[in-house]
Design a protein that fits this description.
Elements: E1 2-3, H1 14-20, E2 28-29, H2 48-61, E3 67-72, H3 74-85, E4 90-96, H4 105-119, H5 122-130, H6 141-149, H7 153-164, E5 179-184, H8 192-201, E6 206-210, H9 217-220, H10 222-234
Parallel strand pairs: 1-2, 1-3, 3-4, 4-5, 5-6
Helix pairs in contact: 1-10, 2-3, 4-5, 4-7, 5-6
Amino acid sequence: MFVHGVGSTAAIWDYQLDALSDEYRCFAVELRGNGIPKPEPDPSEITRDGYVDDVLAVGDAASAERFHFVGCSLGGVVGFELWKRAPQRIRSLTFVGSFACYPDAQNYVDNVIAAVEAAGTMEHFAFERAQRLGLPPGKRTAETIAQMGCKIVPSYIAATHATWTGDYRDLAPGISVPTLVICGERDTVAPPPFSQEIAGVIPGARLEVLAGAGHVANADAPDRFNDLLRAFLHDPN
């Protein structure tokens, strides 16, 4: 079960679906309020609890009583929330470019919202934001802008609040499923120390840093990411 970040859509996992679908049933969840052709939800429904509902709805529709969970950035936040509500559904957790508690979160949220409002449109904001994600030089800029630009401002603002303001430092030590933590060496949004913190408090968690990758390591370095994930899923313990 793959869950994307606040600036991405489910399409960010295409590299993983292509690589792993011969071995696993793979699902990339499109979280509510992320630009797919449907009526936009009321912003009040774009919450961390709502995101867990989305994941569990896919799991139920797939008749997946338990599943491996892989989440990038906001997706990692959803992983923590899922563990809080339904730990019995999780076989393993993989966090990608995520965090247990974002430093000075409210100030960060305020700055992102101010930047969105100053940009005027999600397309303009996406262009500016893409320059700050530690993308490998010359790669993935158009994809990043397209995925972020398809959202609408009210939904993105609600998702921004949901993404950055959780605190899982007390929850994380109680996680008892195999856990893999991956981050990009060039990640400037959730730098490697954030992943080191997650790996340091979850018992038995493994940490991998991908050289040359930025915030969305699964898309920045898909072959190396897929190798790590495949090896972990084959032998999570």
